[in-house]
Design brief:
With 318 residues, the chain is an alpha+beta fold. It has one domain: Oxidoreductase, molybdopterin-binding domain (Sulfite Oxidase, Chain A, domain 2), CATH 3.90.420. Helix content is 21%, strand content 21%. It is built from eleven helices and 13 strands. Helix 2 crosses helix 3. The protein is globular. It starts with 18 loop residues before the first helix and ends in a 13-residue tail after the last helix. The relative contact order is 0.16.
Length: 318
């Protein structure tokens, strides 16, 4: 008899999003649960269907020990400097006239099949949205567990057909000073840029989020396309992506430009390498009270990603 060993990330059905929240029997009931009513219902119904919702739960990406953070915490406690440097500001300021529909993303650079697609067309080409439950660890030493909806990044990169000389992937967010108070103030150099090695981007855990808890991703969480790499610190998870470029040179990321001593290119979660101003050995769980928990190497995904860094000095390559 074949006995299957569960992966580190796997969750039982009971530990993920309650079925009543996102997998309702009727799409109209689903949209009513989002607070949509009246004349707006039909439009949102069509949009949700186009964007791949309701999503399908991927049972292969779950961890029995993980309890998803409440939706209210996920959507009200986050960093999005384009809309303020305080954790609560993005929820307010990102929803004051900024629109993410329509939205176009470009996949370009060292590819044989460059793409320029509407976000809903991208989701269609990826086969719709699936839900995965991942840990999220911020470099500021707080953490969450998020049920992300979206698609595996490697599928999109494969569709663009990388050239043999492509070694890195650069991600660029939007630039809209009219809608973005942070960009007007210049609190960071904009547009925000992040990057991965190509083999990191092609890892099965690397994900493009289009939703949270079975709902389209809110503006403050990085609508409509957000990178999710769960073994890295949260600042790597660039929000509101407009361009993905494959290159042969390692990109210089926004936080490296600002302070390379504190924020490296790799940004792998590593409890043995402290931030210059605080320990990374433990973390505060948002919504989990006043206590702290031990931080895991690669945020608990060591089995899946450690081989990417064989022979590397992870203190030097932080």
């Amino acid at each position: 008899m074949l006995i299957r060993t569960p992966q580190d990330w796997e969750l039982p059905e009971s530990a993920a999003t309650p079925e009543s929240l996102y997998h309702l029997s009727k799409r109209r009931d689903f949209l009513k649960a989002l607070g949509v009513g009246g004349a707006a219902l039909a439009a949102r119904e069509a949009l949700a269907a186009t964007a791949g919702f309701p999503s399908k739960v991927n049972a292969d990406y779950r961890d029995p020990a993980l309890k998803p953070t409440a939706y209210e915490h996920i959507t009200s406690y986050n960093n999005f400097y384009e809309f303020g440097t305080d954790k609560a500001e993005p929820k307010v300021l990102a929803n004051r006239g900024w629109t993410t529909e329509p939205w176009t993303v470009e996949v370009t650079g060292l590819v044989n099949n460059p793409l320029k697609l509407d976000v809903n067309e991208v989701v269609k080409k990826m086969g719709g949205a699936e839900q995965r439950v991942y840990r999220l660890r911020c470099v500021e030493a707080w953490s969450m567990v998020v049920p992300w909806d979206g698609f595996q990044l490697s599928k999109l990169i494969a569709l663009a057909d990388p050239k043999s000389e492509a070694k890195f992937v650069t991600f660029t967010t939007f630039l809209d000073k009219k809608s973005s108070p942070g960009q007007r103030q210049g609190n960071l150099p904009y547009p925000y840029i992040e990057g991965l090695r190509l083999d990191e981007a092609m890892n099965e855990l690397s994900f493009i989020a289009t939703g949270i808890y079975g709902k389209p991703i809110p503006h403050q969480n990085g609508a409509p396309l957000r990178l999710v790499v769960p073994w890295k610190y949260g600042f790597k998870c660039i929000k509101s992506i407009v361009k993905i470029e494959l290159t042969d040179k390692q990109p210089l990321n926004t936080w490296q430009v600002l302070q390379a001593r504190e924020y490296g290119f790799y940004a792998n979660v590593n409890p043995q390498v402290d931030h210059p101003r605080w320990t990374q050995a433990s973390e505060r769980v948002i919504g989990g009270g006043l206590g702290r928990q031990k931080t895991l190497m690669f945020n608990g995904y060591e089995q899946q990603v450690a081989s990417l860094y064989t022979g590397m000095d992870l203190r030097k390559n932080y």
